[in-house]
Amino acid sequence: MKWNENDLRLALRYAHVKEEKDSPFRDWLVALEPVLQEVITPRVTWRVFSCHKEADGIALEPGHLMLPGNLATSLLGECGQVIVAAASLGHGFDRQTSLYEACNEPAWALLWDAAGSVWIEKVMDELETVLKATPEFENRFFTDRFSCGYGDLPLALQKEIGVLLNLPLRCGIQVLDSCMMAPTKSITAFIGVADQEQPSRIRGCAFCSMNSQCAYRKKGKTCHES
């Protein structure tokens, strides 16, 4: 994988760095690309579940996982299946983070963390592209991808996902008691699969788990502004 212009802009926003074409921080991010390629070991896994709507939300089978709330119902209400996926950049990313911190390089550590946040989404984007091209999903339509912590979907579901996907064995991911994951740059996600085209339903800050403490919103901006 390589940086593109949108990746760089997003990473700068994650790092709370003002966007300027001649910003040295942009050059620093570009310099981090070969480091990322050297130290990360992306791992992905996914599994397809049947799903149906119930009074309390969307039920997945097998596994008896219930996705409560309006977000899951809105996105998966017309779907007969849902892909539950996970990805990680591996422990090499965390070791490099510790190295920057130990060397008292806070600026590099900050940009490195922001770069990892963008990179893990790129890994998941690539997985979604591969899935769309598989014969299993030919002539099927995907919903927006969404994760625990979006909207009203509880972060606590991470533990159940860890069991359903056997994340320690299949992806090297441990779900902690806090429901965060190790390695730190790990992610789980849901993608609905339907027989008819699905509109984009996830828009704006309402679906972000950080909407109540977002630094951009305090400044009257958003992280997705052009």
Describe the model.
- The chain contains eight helices and eight strands; from the N terminus they run ααβββαβααβααβββα.
- The chain has helices at residues 5-14, 24-39, 70-76, 91-102, 106-132, 157-164, 167-170, 215-218; strands at 43-54, 57-61, 65-68, 81-88, 141-146, 174-175, 181-182, 186-194.
- The mean pLDDT is 88.
- The radius of gyration is 18 Å and the shape is globular.
- The protein has a six-stranded antiparallel beta sheet.
- 39% of the residues lie in helices and 21% in strands.
- It is an alpha+beta fold and 226 residues long.
Give a quick set of tags describing it:
226 residues, 8 helices, two-stranded antiparallel ribbon, 8 strands, single chain, 6-stranded antiparallel β-sheet, globular, alpha+beta, 39% helix
Provide a short characterization of the protein structure.
The protein has helices at 5-14, 24-39, 70-76, 91-102, 106-132, 157-164, 167-170, 215-218, and strands spanning 43-54, 57-61, 65-68, 81-88, 141-146, 174-175, 181-182, 186-194. The chain is α+β, with helices and mostly antiparallel strands and 226 residues long.
